Amino acid sequence: MALAGGTDSFLHHPYYQGQVEQTPPHRPGDLAGPGFPAPPDRLAGHQEDDVDLEALVNDMDASLESLCAASETAPLLHNGQHSRGPTPGARVLQPQAAPRQRVQRSQPVRILAVRRLQEEDPHLRTSSLPAIPNPFPELCGPGSPPALTPGSLPPGPAAAKQDVKVFSEDGTSKVVEILADMTARDLCQLLVYRSHCVDDNSWTLVEHHPHLGLERCLEDHELVVQVESTMASESKFLFRKNYAKYEFFKNPMNFFPEQMVTWCQQSNGSHTQLLQNFLNSSSCPEIQGFLHVKELGRKSWKKLYVCLRRSGLYCSTKGASKEPRHLQLLAELEGSSIFSLIAGRKQYGAPTDYGFCIKPNRVRTEAKELRLLCAEDEQSRTCWVTACRLLKYGMLLYQNYRIPQQRKAMLSSFSTPVRSVSENSLVAMDFSGQTGRVIENPAEAQSAALEEGHAWRKRSTRMNILGSQSPLHPSALSTVIHRTQHWFHGRISREESHRIIKQQGLVDGLFLLRDSQSNPKAFVLTLCHHQKIKNFQILPCEDDGQTFFSLDDGNTKFSDLIQLVDFYQLNKGVLPCRLKHHCIRVAL
């Protein structure tokens, strides 16, 4: 039995769909048409059913009443559609006015599947729930599929890209396409990957202005495209190493002498307290001392007492007085960048070689608006430049320093363990007996090393007598093999080697090797220690007809320069410190 305008829940339920096909045919007298009352016995026997049906009909949506009215006037055919006109042979039933007719029943019809019924006549699509307005009619309309099509949404704005040209130390260059939000750290990692270099977090991007004689290392968080927008057409980016970029966080006590730093609060002078005073925005550290200051628009330089604060750089108009009435603003850190002078003496007539500059970002080619300053030595200049960076960026600079370390700590658990090469990780061993033992006595360890060295040379001499090639033989390979190493820079001058050391950071243990200009058969080791550059000559020496290289007049001999460098990376020997970082030039 089906109600005229009944709910979809009856049609969708599998039980009722199965029961419709299995329902036996009824006699015409058993069913009541529109306007015909049911027999008394059936009404009496189904009184409870009438009450439930009445409640169900009364709860139907008002939108179904029109459908019910249509079904009363137009009876359904055997295919489930409304009749559009009088059907031949069909008896038209005229509804009679029945007092208080409570339930109306339809004629027996064969109910088709719901999907087919809706396809044949979309006007018969009913719902058992109240009509809910569709918030997206354009997506689920009659002519549109309910799913999103590839072209249904408007295209989003494409990420802006820009070509950046980066130069290396040897003059080669590479054009890289970058996004507008790429930082200097991201670009350096991209160049390291494409150049097949070792990423030791010391690579940096340098902003170079040859017409102004200025350069600086970009901070890791700076946007490359934004920095390039403030550069002139003659300016360019350089890709080089800088081991001293975050050296302050490793050894802060070596940067600021006590006479140059004044704190607004009591400081115990410890490593942690020094970092907190600079990184804490509420503290007021001051860097003070004498600097040579170039007057704006003039060629003259004056030695003034200068004070650096968070608000800017000030000079005293009366000796070393720091009273507010005697302080005059020289430059502001906000909206400016700190550069180093490349050739301050030649281009600006600087009194020393340790010059730096505070350049406003709006200045591109005008040198008259640059605030040029000079320190007495390299340590003082490093102190002033580092203090300017710390006061300007603060905690952001410390985060740049910590990000690579945190990333390395996360990846360390997934990487294979690597043996440490520190000088404390190697011990002397004695394997003369059945089992090896560690030699605790330093004198015994040194004696064992000398005996092993003599035994090795005797074996090599015996092999030469027998006609075999010895690794200590002065062959062509041992004399040129060092030229394949990154730390060897060939025939460069002393001044050029010092310039490379300064560019890549004055940190302890930074070194390079080059050919000697005074002795064609010798080499020179250029080493940085305590921000000073020193040169050590490597001389060839002969022993038993074999050629060796030595730094200490033949006391310690090596067959080639690679063995010499490997040795002094583990032992400082006659050097002031061990070899830690080598200067490198990469061709892009």
TrEMBL record:
The UniProt annotation puts the region (Disordered) at 19-38, 77-105, 123-160
Q: Which Gene3D superfamilies match?
A: Phosphatidylinositol 3-kinase Catalytic Subunit, Chain A, domain 1, Pleckstrin-homology domain (PH domain)/Phosphotyrosine-binding domain (PTB), SH2 domain
Question: PROSITE patterns this protein is in?
Answer: PH_DOMAIN (PS50003), RA (PS50200), SH2 (PS50001)
Query: By its UniProt entry, which SUPFAM superfamilies does this protein fall under?
Result: PH domain-like, SH2 domain, Ubiquitin-like
- What positions does the domain Ras-associating occupy? 160-244
Q: Where is the PH domain?
A: 284-393
Q: Which InterPro entries match?
A: BPS-dom, GRB/APBB1IP, Grb10_SH2, PH-like_dom_sf, PH_APBB1IP, PH_domain, RA_dom, SH2
Keywords for this entry? Cytoplasm, Phosphoprotein, SH2 domain
Compositional bias segments (type: Pro residues): 143-157
Has UniProt tagged this entry with the keyword Phosphoprotein?
Answer: yes
Chain intervals with Low complexity compositional bias? 94-105
Its subcellular locations are: Cytoplasm
Q: Which domain of life is it from?
A: Eukaryota
Q: Name one Pfam family in it.
A: RA_2
Please list the residue ranges annotated as the SH2 domain. 487-583
Q: Where are the transmembrane segments?
A: none
Sequence similarity: Belongs to the GRB7/10/14 family.
Name used for this protein in its record: Growth factor receptor-bound protein 10
Source organism per entry reads Rangifer tarandus platyrhynchus (Svalbard reindeer)
